[in-house]
Amino acid sequence: MSNRLSEEGLDLLFRQARTHSAWLDKPVSDDTLKQLYDLMKWGPTSANCCPARILFLRTPEAKRRLLPALAPGNVDKTMAAPVTAIIAYDLKFYEQLPKLFPHTDARAWFANTPELAGITARRNSSLQGAYFMIAARALGLDCGPMSGFDNVMVDHEFFPADGETNAFQLEHFPDSHVKANFLCNLGYGDPTKLHARSPRLEFDEVCKLL
Amino acid sequence: MSNRLSEEGLDLLFRQARTHSAWLDKPVSDDTLKQLYDLMKWGPTSANCCPARILFLRTPEAKRRLLPALAPGNVDKTMAAPVTAIIAYDLKFYEQLPKLFPHTDARAWFANTPELAGITARRNSSLQGAYFMIAARALGLDCGPMSGFDNVMVDHEFFPADGETNAFQLEHFPDSHVKANFLCNLGYGDPTKLHARSPRLEFDEVCKLL
């Protein structure tokens, strides 16, 4: 195994990769979504806690449930995208720790400390959201991540609380311990619709060598 | 440009990559740290807000300032690592938006909404922390990310508030709007010291196709 990624790979994942809003008429297969998960799952999380949960909205019906919660500027590109992912997190991720981190009782670190569990779920599901986007690019997909939506509306529609829960949601997310983090459109972007790239901060504006 | 990463690349970044705690006696050059930043900076953030700030602790003196804040299990591997990065975030990231997102007044979205600014800084600096680790692996480095530390102590030592600020810190981080997110050791890991890999959740435990 080479111990450095090729220049072509660095371009694909970082230097030439762009956020897309316009999509080619090319579907994303369920098999590709499974390949995506089977890459992103390997990214490191704290105590291997793996708190991310993902809904892949593939049909117009599923995406219409999302529309009322979207910022106006995110509606058209979301309806046009082959797939929209809701990257969410499970506040009760710690129930999986006996399996995921079996060498010690890591569940006890979080089960009675909801503030720590919340910080850990949000930080690590964001890390996993980034692994998701890099893995998508590694598979030739393009991403359009979005924070412009109403979290309360998305959580109410897709991860409702007890008493507001239909049968499907009761089965999958029984008591609203799953919360949306951000959204990400997936597909094959139309490079002719890209604008000029925005600048980035210089090394010396961000980093200090101590 | 190929539109899919090579199998070798997928192994390097995801499938064979491991979190390391034992390090080969091989330094990490400042030039490599600059290459790392020049890759990770391209990863997408909300409104291109780029809130991550990074301290690279390279010397025993710099790392000794961190030691009192570390969980006991993180001390030896941190002192042994060639570099320890403090991945932090700037709560006033929005002051850079006129440069980073010039087409609209994005600064106004955050400047008077500290709660939204905080959520945005934490989410996006975590995304950037993941880009940091993937970029490090792409350059042949290994990572040892850590959440086991006292945030208050790290912030007090490295990003102190007004009135507790020495000249160096006043210059770089004038009023404690920079906060630590997580730590990451960097170096070339010793593969003979790795334990068996922990399991991951299956696709159907994490993802739903709607």
Automatic annotation (TrEMBL), chains A, B:
Cofactor(s) the record lists: FMN
Claim: Oxidoreductase is one of the keywords in the record: yes
Documented EC number(s): 1.-.-.-
The UniProt record lists the keyword NADP: yes
Domain Nitroreductase stretches: 15-153
GO MF annotation list: 3-hydroxypropionate dehydrogenase (NADP+) activity
Keywords for the protein's UniProt record, in alphabetical order: Flavoprotein, FMN, NAD, NADP, Oxidoreductase
Family per similarity comment: Belongs to the nitroreductase family. HadB/RutE subfamily.
Protein name (record): Putative NADH dehydrogenase/NAD(P)H nitroreductase J7302_22620
Organism: Metapseudomonas boanensis
Lineage summary: Bacteria, Pseudomonadati, Pseudomonadota, Gammaproteobacteria, Pseudomonadales
